[in-house]
Amino acid sequence: MTKNTICLWYARDAEEAARFYARTFPDSAVGAVREAPTDFPGGKAGDVLTVEFTVCGVRCLAINGGDAFKQSEAFSFQIDTDDQAETDRYWDAIVGNGGEESACGWCKDRWGLSWQITPRVLTQAMAAGGEVAKRAFAAMMKMRKIDIAAIEAAVRG
User: Fold this and answer.
1) What rounded mean pLDDT belongs to the chain?
2) What contacts 89, CB < 8 A, 6 or more positions away?
3) Per the structure, how many domains does the chain have?
């Protein structure tokens, strides 16, 4: 059993968000759904309070805490992809379910949680350093969803 769990705050849709993530990403599932034993500032007794879930094997807890806090780009899940089809599938699932596009492979889901959909070819190009990394980075900076063919072309020069 791990000692660390990522805890994410939702206004009131924690279970819906967790179920969406479980449907969308591999090695993801919804576990225990717990109800509030009494009224609390964000809800009433019997409302869903917490949801245990995993995203790509990472243990998480979602809490329905009301409107006190919002998601921020300061936290994101980075999902590595192997090809354009996988990149497109995750991107389209997030953006197509009420989310929004951002730049450089980032997007937000409908609950405001940020995701980086990052093809491994981009990560490898950046790790190569030097001119390869510069060209890949310059190409990425012009993109919303990452276009693997364009990154590969930039790597080749």
Assistant:
1) 97
2) none
3) 2
